[in-house]
Amino acid sequence: MLAMVDRFARYGLPLHLTETTLLSGELMPAHIEDLNDSPFTDWPSTPEGEARQADEVERHYRSLLSHPSVQAITYWGLTDDGMWLGAPGGFVRADGTPKPSYDVLRGLVKGEWWLPPTPMRTDADGRVRVSGFLGEYAVTTGGDAAVFSVEGRHATSRCGSGEGRGARCGAGGSLRRGSAVA
């Protein structure tokens, strides 16, 4: 997957991966050339398939989230109910119960990757080191605010109304992806 992402990243545009589906049942036989010729009339999720799907979901999202060119990932089908060709590709079974892949993705997003508001103290120079994902962050202190973003390997900042009065503004320079000084 990352080789394909690297191939398109060379154009310098943000990448959006859409309509991802990872199956939790039998995989489509290799000899089927047109998915509309699917041999399945009933395509159930299986315990082995659900374990495989959970592993693939974790590897898929970790890989894509780690690539600086990937801006969006769209998964196609939250639930098995109504999936194209009746494929068992959702994070939730047709009866509404979550599969292991649901728990894995929720654990990544709401557990490992979730960044709640975090009280921090400045260093002697009035700066705060921040580690996080690429994107925008807000720093507030009292009534002052600054917004900065981590993009690629650089951080940029925009100061709020209290520029220079407590919230130090001016993150910048060459930084590791995922960290900044504000």
TrEMBL record:
Region (Disordered): 159-182
Positions with biased composition (Gly residues): 161-175
Matches recorded under InterPro entries: GH, GH10_dom
Organism: Naasia aerilata
Keywords annotated in UniProt: Carbohydrate metabolism, Hydrolase, Polysaccharide degradation
Protein name: GH10 domain-containing protein
Gene3D superfamilies assigned: Glycosidases
Positions of the GH10 domain: 1-108
